[in-house]
Amino acid sequence: MQLFKYEAVIAKCRALYGKLLKADDYEMLLKSTSISEIAVYLRDRTAYAEFFSDAADLKTMNRAKLEYYIRKSLISDFVKIYRFIYGKEHHFINLLLARFELEFILKTWRHFVWLNRENNSINSINGEDDNKYLLDVGVLEMQMISMIYQYTSKIDIEALKNVSNIGQFMEAISKTNYFNIFEKYMGDGISQDYTKLEAAIYNEYYRMLYDAVKIFDRDTQEKIRRLISIEIDLINLERISRIAVNFSESLDAADRSREIMPLLVPIRFKLRAENIQQLITLENKNDFLTYCDSELYYGSKKSFRAYDTFEQYRRNFLYNIYRSGTSHTRSGLDVIIKYFFIKETEIKNLFYLIEGIRYSMNSEEIRPYLIGVDYGYSSSDEGNERGTV
Length: 389
Fold this sequence. Notes:
The protein is an all-alpha fold. It contains 18 helices and no strands.
C-alpha cells in the first residue's frame, strides 16, 4: 500500500463517525410521542440539522418526508467521501451506492408482479397509502443519488415509476448492471417468485462487489473481502434457516437442499460447504441453533440464541465488528465499508423508531429493534464528540 494513500479518507470517515447518534440521543428519541417531535429533536440536537434547511413546518412533518431528510444525510456522506477518492477507485464506491438502485428496482418489481398481477400496472396501487409511500420514497432516494458528484443513476426513474407492462419495466432498467439477470429469469417462472429473484439479484451484486476489490493493493483487498465474506456468510446462514427451520416438516433433506442451494451466494468463508450440508439436514430449530452455537465460527463469538431472528443476529454481529474497527483503523479503504454500514444501521434504527412511534408503541417495545443502541457509547465518550465535516 502506498504510504498515506487513504489518510484523507480515513480522517473524513472518522469525522463523520463522530457525528453519529449516541446512546443519549436514542434515549431522548425513544421518549418522543410523535413524528414531528422526532424531527424537531434531529434538527435541534443532532448533525441531521443541516438536512432540514429546506423543510417546511416540522409540526406537520409526515413519515415519508422525515425519512427522506434522514436518507439525505447518507447520500451527502457519499458525496463527501467521493471528494477524497480518485480514478478507478470511484468504481468501487459506485458499486456501494448501486445497492440503492438495486433496492429500488426490486421494490418496483415486487409491486409490479406481486401486488398488481390482475391489471398489470404499478399506477393502480397508488390509492393504497403504504404502497404509494414505498414507491414515492424510492423515487426520492433515486433522485438524490442521481445528483451525486460524478455519479449518474443508470435507471430511467421517470419511466420506472410509470410502467404499465413488462416491456416498459425492462426498458427502464436496460442500462443497469441487473438488466441481464431479469432478462435471464423472465421466461422460466422465477420472475413470479420474488424470493428467488431477489436472491439471484443480490448474488450477482455480491459477486460484482467481491470482484471489484481487485483494483486495490493486496492488503486492502484482504480487508475488504473479509468484510464482504463475513456478511455473505451471515446472509447465507439466514437464507438456510428460513427453509431448513420453517419448512422442515414439509420437506425432506433432499428437497430442502434443492430449495436452499440456489438461494445461496456462491462465496464461502467461515461458513464452509460441509457446514451448509449439515445445517440442511437438521429438522428443528433447537438442533439448528445448537449446531450454529457449537460448530460455527460465528456461534463461538456470539450466541445465536440471544436473538429472535437470524437477521437480528447478522446486523448485530456486523455492527459490533464495524463499529469497533472504525474508531481505531489506521489504514485501508475498508474504513468506507465500515462507516457506511454503521450509518445505514443508524438510519434503519431511526426508521424503526419512526414506525414504532407512528403506531404508538412504547419505548421498551421499540428498543429491541434498534441495533447497537446498547453498545455503551454516550455523548460524553472521550474522542467521540461530533466533528465538523
